[in-house]
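quick one, 159 residues, struct below
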Amino acid sequence: MNQTINHFIQNIGQLSQNIAHMNQNISVQPIAFDARLSHGIASLGDQQTIVYDKIVTNIGNGYDSRNSYFSAPVNGVYMIAVSGMAEHNEYIELSIVKNGTPIGFVRSGFTNDYESGTTVLPLFLAKGDMIWVRHVSSTLGKIHGYGWNTFSGFLIATV
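---
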């Protein structure tokens, strides 16, 4: 009888250790970033990456401010948002790029006032997948600064 009780106690101890180990593995730190363009860009080049220079939030350090891309730290479903604003009476077209392939677009301009365009994409990203924003070569224009152009995202859930 004592052997059986000792055996159950050992099994319970092992199960407790296994549960603790599993909880450590599923504990994921929050991931979120928000970057903005603090200045205008007067001349956008062909396929030019937009460098968002004002970092508001970079929880989890997934956003690379030197190269202006987000790299997914873990596999998961992410929400990515891009807002673009052209200068007065100008036009811009931006593409949201995943690992070199455009997956969404933002357009703004050709009005007598400032207008902005926004795209929000829920995406599955594998660890290491990269997202960035670039100018589409078929358009000309000037991009407005002062925080009106934004690139942001966050992890919804790990997969």
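Residues 30-158 form a domain with the Jelly Rolls fold (CATH 2.60.120.40).
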